[in-house]
C-alpha cells in the first residue's frame, strides 16, 4: 500500500482547529465531555438492548449495532484529536494516517447501510404489521446487520490504496483534525484524477444509494400512514419513525456534503465544522434521540437503575 512514499513522507501533522493554547484547552474540555457522553450513552443503550427482555426485538438489535458503530466511529478520531490538543507535536505516522482513514470510512459506510436497514425495518413494521415477525425475524436482522458490517469493511479498500499510493512531497500539514481523503488530496503532488473519480463514484453509490433506498422506504411509510383513518393512529405511526428520520437527515446530509462534490470546492474550515457534526455530535445524539420519546427504553432504564441501586 505505501510503496515508495515512506522515503518521501514518514508522518503527517494534523493541524486541528487552532494554535492558541487557551482555545485548545477549551476545545479539549468540550470534546472530552462530548466523547464521554457518547461512550456512556451508547454503552448504556447496548447494555439495555442486550439484557432487557422487552428490548430483545429486531428493531432494538439494529439499534444496538448502530450504537456499537457509533462507539467505534467516534473512537477512530476523537482520542487522537484530544491528544493533539495537549501535545506540542501533533504528528501521526504515514501508516497510522491511512489506518485511521480506512476505519473512518469503513465504519461510516457500515452506518449508511445500517440506517438503510433500519428504515426498511420501520417500513415493514408499519406497512406490513401482520407479517412483521416473519419478514423481520431475529435471524433476518442478524444477517442484514452482518451484511452492513461486511459491506463497510470492503467499501474503503479501493480509495485507501489509491490515496496512500499518491506522492506527498510538499507540505506535511493536514488541515484537519483527522486523516481524510479531501485534505490529503490537497497535499498530493501526483495526478489524483482517478482517485477523485473513485471516491465520488463510491460516495454516490454508498451515500446516494443508501439515501435513495431510505427515502423510498419513508415515501411508502407516509403513503401507508396517510391511509390510517384515526388521527391518533397516524400520530403514533409517525412518532415511531421520527427519531430515525432525524438521524438519517443529519447523517446523510453531512456525509453527502463532504464527499459528493468536486475537489475544487474543498474548504478546510467549513469541512472541520461539518465533520464535528457527523463524527462527534451525531454519535452523541443518537442514543438521546432514540431514547427520548421511547417509552420501552425509558422503562428498561428505570428497571436497570432500580436493580443496580438495591
Automatic annotation (TrEMBL):
Membrane topology: Multi-pass membrane protein
G-protein coupled receptors family 1 profile domain location: 41-290
One CC-aspect GO term: plasma membrane
GO molecular function, one term: G protein-coupled receptor activity
This protein's record includes keyword Membrane: yes
PROSITE patterns according to UniProt: G_PROTEIN_RECEP_F1_1, G_PROTEIN_RECEP_F1_2
Mitochondrion as UniProt keyword: no
UniProt similarity note: Belongs to the G-protein coupled receptor 1 family.
Species whose genome carries this gene: Pleurodeles waltl (Iberian ribbed newt)
Keywords from the UniProt entry: Cell membrane, G-protein coupled receptor, Membrane, Olfaction, Receptor, Sensory transduction, Transducer, Transmembrane, Transmembrane helix
Subcellular location: Cell membrane
Record Pfam families: 7tm_4 (PF13853)
Protein name per its UniProtKB record: Olfactory receptor
Residues that span the membrane, as ranges: 25-50, 62-82, 102-124, 144-168, 202-226, 238-260, 272-292
Coarse class of the protein's main subcellular location: membrane
Amino acid at each position: 500500500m505505501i510503496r515508495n512514499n515512506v522515503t518521501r513522507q514518514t508522518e503527517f501533522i494534523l493541524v486541528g482547529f487552532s494554535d492558541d493554547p487557551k482555545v485548545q484547552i477549551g476545545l479539549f474540555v468540550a470534546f472530552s465531555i462530548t466523547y464521554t457522553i457518547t461512550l456512556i450513552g451508547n454503552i448504556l443503550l447496548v447494555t439495555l438492548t442486550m439484557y432487557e427482555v422487552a428490548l430483545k426485538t429486531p428493531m432494538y438489535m439494529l439499534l444496538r449495532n448502530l450504537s456499537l458503530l457509533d462507539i467505534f466511529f467516534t473512537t477512530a478520531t476523537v482520542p487522537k484529536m484530544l491528544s493533539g490538543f495537549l501535545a506540542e507535536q501533533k504528528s501521526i505516522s504515514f501508516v497510522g494516517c491511512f489506518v485511521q482513514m480506512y476505519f473512518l470510512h469503513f465504519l461510516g459506510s457500515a452506518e449508511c447501510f445500517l440506517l438503510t436497514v433500519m428504515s426498511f425495518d420501520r417500513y415493514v413494521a408499519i406497512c406490513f404489521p401482520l407479517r412483521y415477525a416473519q419478514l423481520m425475524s431475529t435471524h433476518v436482522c442478524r444477517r442484514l446487520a452482518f451484511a452492513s458490517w461486511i459491506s463497510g469493511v470492503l467499501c474503503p479498500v479501493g480509495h485507501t490504496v489509491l490515496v496512500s499510493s499518491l506522492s506527498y512531497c510538499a507540505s506535511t500539514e493536514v488541515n484537519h483534525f483527522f486523516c481524510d481523503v479531501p485534505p490529503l488530496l490537497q497535499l498530493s503532488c501526483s495526478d489524483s484524477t482517478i482517485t477523485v473519480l473513485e471516491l465520488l463514484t463510491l460516495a454516490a453509490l454508498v451515500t446516494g444509494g443508501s439515501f435513495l433506498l431510505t427515502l423510498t422506504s419513508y415515501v411508502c411509510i407516509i403513503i401507508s400512514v396517510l391511509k390510517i383513518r384515526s388521527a391518533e393512529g397516524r400520530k403514533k405511526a409517525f412518532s415511531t419513525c421520527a427519531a430515525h428520520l432525524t438521524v438519517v437527515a443529519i447523517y446523510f446530509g453531512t456525509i453527502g456534503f463532504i464527499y459528493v462534490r468536486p475537489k475544487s470546492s474543498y474548504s478546510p474550515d467549513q469541512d472541520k465544522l461539518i465533520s464535528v457534526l457527523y463524527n462527534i455530535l451525531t454519535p452523541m445524539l443518537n442514543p438521546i434521540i432514540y431514547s427520548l420519546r421511547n417509552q420501552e427504553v425509558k422503562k428498561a432504564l428505570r428497571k436497570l437503575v432500580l436493580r443496580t441501586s438495591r
